[in-house]
Amino acid sequence: MNAMTSIVRLLAAASAALLMSCAGYSPGSLQQGASRDEAVRLMGAPTGQYALPSGGTRLEFARGPFGKHTYMLDFDANGRLQRWQQVLTEANFNALQMGMSRDEVLMKLGRPSHTSYIQWQKLDLWSYRYDAVFCQWFNVGFSAQGKVADLGYTPDPMCDINDKDNRPS
Asked: Looking at the chain, which terminus has fewer C-beta neighbours within 10 angstroms, N or C?
């Protein structure tokens, strides 16, 4: 193991410890009907907020080292919890459709783990890390018009760290 791998692991562990000490990791203890204030006390400051068509609000809480979990909590117009879910799942990724807007993707998945631009395709690329059997992430490519133009899974570059260290010279 080289110094870079050790540093990455140390930072991941420190980030996880910091998150755990500052706020609850998941909303598991929150019951339906809990107030928005209770949720924020438990979870910390939300990483996103979205208006629901019903007049309520969806709060996003991105979690985990390298962003592998994002919890969405839906509140009614009176600020009472209706439901919550961890949204970084293959079922949610596979439900996305071509032509969706950036706002629709944010509402469904929250902020991405990583963003980049693919020059030759002229796509803004949003990548989402998640718990998977294989080390992969999910990518959403947006056209210049801000619409989903590409969807797919690719290997997560974080998995290549150890592979590069162990290559024969």
From this structure: C
